Amino acid sequence: MRAISELKPILGLEMTATPKSVGTRSQAFNNVIFQYGLGDAMKDGFVKEPAVATRANFRREDFDKDQLEQIMLEDAVHYHEQVRTELELYARQTGRQRVHPFVLVVAQDTDHAERIRQVIQSEQFFGGAYKDLVIRVDSKLSGEESDEAVARLVGLETDAKTEIVIHVNKLKEGWDVTNLFTIVPLRASASDILTEQTLGRGLRLPYGERTGVETVDTLTVIAHDRFDAVIQQARAADSIVRVKELTIGPGGDVPETASRVIEGRPSFDTLLTGRPSGLSDGATQEPFVLDDAASRQAAAVTLDFIRHKYERQLSRAAELCTPEVRQRLIEDVRRQLEPVHQTFEGIAPVVDLDKVVDAVTQSLVENLIEIPEIAVLPSREVTLWFEDFELQDLGHVRFQPVSETILIRNLRLETQRELARAATGARESQVENYIIRHLIESPQIDYDTQADLLYKLAGQMISHLRSYLETEDDVENVALVRGRQLADVIFEQMRRHYHETPADYRAKVVRAFRTLQPFAVSAGTGNGVLDLKRSANPLSETRRHLFGGSTKSPFTLHRFDSDPERRFAAMIDSAFEKSVLRWLKPGPGQFGIEYHSGRSYEPDFVVETETEKLIVEVKSVAEMNDPVVRDKARAAAEWVIHANALAEAGVGKPWAYLLVPDSAIIESATLAGLRSRYGRIV
Predict the structure, then answer these.
(1) CA-CA-CA-CA dihedral for 254, 255, 258, 259, to nearest 10
(2) Rounded to whole angstroms, how far apart are CA atoms 149 and 172?
(3) Contact 504, 389 (CB under 8 A)
(4) Structure pTM?
(5) Gene3D superfamilies, per this entry (predicted)?
(6) Is the domain defined by 45-234 classed in CATH 3.10.690.10?
(7) What is 528-678's CATH number?
(8) For the chain, which residues make up each domain, given as ranges?
(9) Residues with Cβ within 8 Å of residue 81, at least 6 apart in sequence
(10) Which residues pair with 89 in a beta bridge?
(11) What's the confidence (pLDDT) of residue 682?
């Protein structure tokens, strides 16, 4: 400063990362000409987006201090495994350099750091999988131990020798890396977590730019005990991330009533299997179709067989009722149930499988709208194939069993995603099917011709899981919860062995129909179910309500994005629309039309009349010319062309697509009138 003063400058310009005075009563500089803060860098995409994670419905008071830290460390590893797989896939898909992620654990003091290290290196912590991948860096280290820690710190970005770093305060300002994706600040306050000193350690982007892959572009803080406090501080006006505020209450972003997740099933599914659906508490449950629990279990097995096997084998759902198919289905169900019946022989009631299968197939055919899954393929006999090969380089796949949902909240954008769900859902008779059911969703994979290769590769992945997981239950847990990620790893390697011979293209029915899938929605505990014919009050609350009372839909509950959608549903459900046989509001994966770069479009409605089937999209007048809406419309129109070509060949009824403005859905409107006016894409 003395040297500068001797120059007698007229003007001095300073650049600093901390425009404030030092000391306990730090004050912001009042002569700042231009300021570009961390929030600006996040918004402009120059750094990672910060997020905070916890378990769903986590209650801090249910755990002592040691239990809390154990859970936070385990969940950090679960998230870390996800990050490593996403980075591996991104590197392989783009040809860019592989990034080795690591977890930073912030301890309170050196003794605390050592206790954490001992926990991670114990056999009880994921079977000792991380005991050689963790280092401790603090002031108590000396000699060779300190030299080794420093050497491993230097290699953090270039090797995979270290995946967990524990430190107290030895890593001061100026130490930051590009491959830090997970921070575990144990015993830290919310204000300590939400600082540039904490977040700044890992905000640098590994490729110098955003990739578009959310996991790769995010720095996540595991903060089970401070989740709410961090969110609140992030919303403060002076927050470094400057998060949008949410309002709670009528008309706000968040309803004032608590909410819960419910699962909606087709009513015939519940009546056949006894599986719960919607908000039902059993008090108003209609009588079950089948008399005993064993028969209802057999009905559930029958539906699963139809979904996973017969959908791809039959050209019409009605074939389920033919004597030949019914007999094959009965034998499949009997083989599946034999181990159970043998175990409880003499105790379990004898199940009349003829009666069960007849009830299931009849109910399914009566309630189903046959929506074909259409693949557009070259017309030559052999035009695309995958060469036989062996899976390689699976060392990065080290998913561990999970039993809780981990919520990850983006601090700036207030978006939320889930790392993994509890291991619930339809059980498979063969563990490989948990992976295969995701692989066959790809339009490039034809199950009929690639089944042997798919089972071989899925089997190799399962063998890899068995190589490091202790029990078959753990293997099934990982295969179920992480099935999509495991399928992504396999498919990425399959792409290298893919061959295609261009030719004229034709439409092929991959599946002639799909059984109706259950859907999950959230419902406010204070909100009852509204009648389909009744609007929400105010109309802006439509999305928060569930609507019931339909007579032509297989589902008892529906959710609508807008009141015009509800009005359209009420119109086609009414007795006045005599031509409408049934209608459906497709859930995720029920329809699936690819409209742009692999994105799937699920239309608002599918309606079956006596003569045709309609895909109907209801949009506001302002959205009618939106580019995304038009892209979806073009994709749907293309799908309809192929579906109608198949219909001409005798596969089902003809199809049409309607893009209907909400202003057209008035009391005097009819489906025939809307079909006539909006049944063509301009």
Answers:
(1) -80
(2) 15
(3) no
(4) 0.47
(5) P-loop containing nucleotide triphosphate hydrolases
(6) no
(7) 3.40.1350
(8) 45-234, 262-372, 374-511, 528-678
(9) 398, 399, 400
(10) none
(11) 37
